């Protein structure tokens, strides 16, 4: 039995214990199991393949360094995803600092455009295949600003509460609530637009 | 028309973020106001769609390629942390050496200072030097004035009574400085 196959039969807990003792083969197996999840999270947040790949690498290097701090309070998957989210949030913050703040940013933040959108009451995705639906949701997410997308990811996919998101993103609960509201409104509008395109 | 604040309350109600009393107020609003009901349905629809259809994205590179990248990164960071450790160790060694260097340096400075002070504190008479002249009728006195950074040679005619006066003047000046 080669090394790769040997560790494939271990569960995450056993792999973490072995990796904490410095076993890189066990860590390699953890990387192989959870790399898509980490990359996917970063990709949804950042929407740039190269950056998401570089940041995924950074996440796993950080995880290796901090592995001794993992005491099993959550699953390994949750722990590594939180590292990925923090790395993604830092990246978005750095990018924003580099970018000259434009009038569009202000409009995006205050939801000036979303306020004018009509209320979409019919489920716009009825009749779509699950895979097609996922692709469309991904495309709709791409249209959001990184800040709005991050709040959606943290709330809808990670299931975090408002105050946890506010703490993580270092902003007020009010900001989180309005970002989430406008992000949902825009998503509903974008998905409704897709439905109209389909029916034509 | 409902306000933005009310819309945010509807959203908070949907997300289970309201207290029981606040939730009841929002429930009443949704039941009594058509716009509030539509906002609630729109938000619920978007939320349900997202929660049940999270995009599944696969990494576009192979397991081996990605692991090599991660492995190299780990190796690099471990080498860096080793060199940082080495630097700290060298610094510690230097500090340990300094522990002995400081007293030695202090001793050297103290010794040099003693010699300098001794040199400065030399009595005036040590500076008084006699210079011989070949001419019998000419006498001389010489002395160094440290404060003026000056060496004085006084040449006088032995036959002239001024020479004797100068000698007595110099001796009285020496006594004055000794006091």
What descriptive keywords fit this protein?
heterodimer, A: 200 residues, mainly alpha, 76% helix, globular, B: mainly alpha, three-stranded antiparallel sheet, 3 strands, 66% helix
What does this structure look like?
By secondary structure, chain A is mainly α. Helices cover 76% and strands 0% of the residues of chain A. Chain A is built from eleven helices and no strands. Chain A has helices at residues 3-8, 12-20, 24-46, 49-66, 76-98, 103-110, 112-115, 130-142, 146-157, 162-169, 173-199. In chain A, helix 2 (12-20) crosses helix 3 (24-46), helix 8 packs across helix 11 (173-199) and helix 9 (146-157) packs across helix 11 (173-199). Chain A is globular, with a radius of gyration of 20 Å. The mean pLDDT of chain A is 85. By secondary structure, chain B is mostly helical. Chain B has five helices and three strands, in the order H-H-H-H-E-E-E-H. A three-stranded antiparallel sheet of chain B has the order 1-2-3, with helices on one face. The chains are: A mainly alpha (200), B mainly alpha (179). The interface between A and B is large, with 48 and 37 residues.
Largest interface chains and counts: A-B, 48 and 37 residues
Radius of gyration of chain B: 50 Å
Biggest sheet layout of chain B: 3 strands, antiparallel
What's the overall geometry of chain B?
elongated
The number of helices of chain B is 5
Please give the number of β-strands of chain B.
Answer: 3
* Class derived from helix and strand content of chain A: mainly alpha
Q: How many whole angstroms does the radius of gyration of chain A measure?
A: 20 Å
N-to-C CA distance of chain B: 106 Å
Mean pLDDT of chain B comes to: 78
Average of the residue pLDDT scores of chain A: 85
Assembly state (oligomeric): heterodimer
Query: What structural class do the secondary elements of chain B suggest?
Result: mainly alpha
């Amino acid at each position: 039995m080669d090394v790769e196959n040997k560790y494939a039969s271990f569960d995450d807990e056993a792999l973490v214990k072995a990796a904490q003792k410095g076993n890189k083969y066990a860590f390699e197996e953890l990387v192989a199991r959870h790399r898509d999840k980490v990359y996917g999270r970063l990709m949804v947040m950042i929407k740039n393949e190269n950056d998401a790949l570089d940041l995924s690498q950074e996440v796993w290097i950080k995880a290796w360094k901090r592995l001794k701090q993992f005491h099993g309070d959550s699953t390994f998957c949750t722990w590594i995803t939180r590292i990925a989210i923090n790395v993604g949030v830092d990246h978005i913050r750095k990018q924003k600092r580099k970018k000259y703040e434009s009038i569009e940013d202000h409009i995006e933040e205050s939801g000036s455009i979303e306020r004018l959108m009509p209320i979409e009451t019919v489920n716009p995705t009825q009749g779509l295949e699950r895979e097609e639906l996922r692709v469309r949701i991904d495309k709709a997410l791409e249209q959001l600003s990184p800040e709005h997308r991050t709040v959606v990811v943290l709330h809808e996919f990670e299931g975090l509460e408002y105050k946890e998101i506010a703490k993580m993103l270092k902003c007020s609960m009010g900001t989180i609530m309005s970002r989430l509201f406008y992000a949902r409104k825009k998503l509903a509008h974008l998905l409704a637009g897709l439905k109209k395109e389909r029916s034509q | 028309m409902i306000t933005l604040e009310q819309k945010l309350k509807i959203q908070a109600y949907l997300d289970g973020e309201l207290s029981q009393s606040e939730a009841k107020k929002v429930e009443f609003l949704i039941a009594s106001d058509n716009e509030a009901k539509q906002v609630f349905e729109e938000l619920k629809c978007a939320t349900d769609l997202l929660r049940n259809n999270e995009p599944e994205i696969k990494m576009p590179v192979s397991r081996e390629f990605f692991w090599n990248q991660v492995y190299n990164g780990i190796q690099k960071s471990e080498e860096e942390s080793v060199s940082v450790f080495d630097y700290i160790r060298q610094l510690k060694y230097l500090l340990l050496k300094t522990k002995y260097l400081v007293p030695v340096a202090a001793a050297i400075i103290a010794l040099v200072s003693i010699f300098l002070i001794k040199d400065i504190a030399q009595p005036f008479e040590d500076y008084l030097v006699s210079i011989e002249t070949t001419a019998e009728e000419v006498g001389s006195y010489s002395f160094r004035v440290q404060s003026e950074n000056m060496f004085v040679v006084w040449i006088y005619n032995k036959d002239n009574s001024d020479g004797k006066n100068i000698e007595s003047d110099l001796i009285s000046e020496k006594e004055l400085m000794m006091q």
